[in-house]
Predict the 3D structure of the following.
Amino acid sequence: MVLEQKIITHNNKRVFEKLVMTTDFKRAPKYFAEDEACFLFLTNGSFQFRTPNNVVTYSKNEAMLAKCGNYFIENTPENQNKADNTISVIGAFFYPEMVKSFFEKDLSIKHFQHKFDVIKVNVEPLMKSFIDSVDFLLENQSIVDENIIINKLKELLLILSKSENASSVYAFVKSLFIPHEYNFNEIIQTNLYSDLSLDDFAKLCNCSLATFKRKFTELYSESPAKYITLKKLEKATQLLHLENKAIADIAYECGFETISNFNKAFKKHFGKSPSEMRLS
């Protein structure tokens, strides 16, 4: 649930935002638009950011830069064990035509080979000072005008381009809007032991559920539900040989949402429960 939200817009598009929300969620699709890139600085709490081939955890005073793409924001165990169950972020959002126009006359295009989808940004003193200035503007929006907005966006892009060692800020800006290319098999194998639904898998693969099922069956000669469940159970049988691992921990590590679901799937496939398998 959103507790506080303050937004600064430019040309009817959100460019800066302060957001405070509770951690009563498990997983949510990224909340920024399809064609935008996003910078987030976490002022409180933590979250996991799931990309098609990676899961990155961000904690207080860490910053994230995400290119356009399909992602999920996930809760972390750390949040559930804290008395203060909120996440607070300050964000900046970049749109292709808007930010490219900032530098058309200032810089020439140079080739920039920096392939990423989501990265952690070094929060150096210069970046921290910038974040404090944006926070001040969000709290005092009566002083904000178009020139301040444009200059602040340019300032952030310049800081980020230096942080990422880009050949030029224009090249860095251009790279933000070139979607990272993923391999279908890589996405599946990376997220195999998560608790993602088939709908979630389809979103990460940037396709409809029907297309995802068709491509999956063509690649693995098996339905996704059957293949994924079998792989999880295979991993579970290996972990059951480790006597110091609790069965509940094994279930969650293999991506089952509940112990009940794990026991049911295990007994259906092997004819005995995980406890019986361990004893045998």
The chain has two domains: 2-176, 184-279. Residues 146-163 form the longest helix (18 residues).
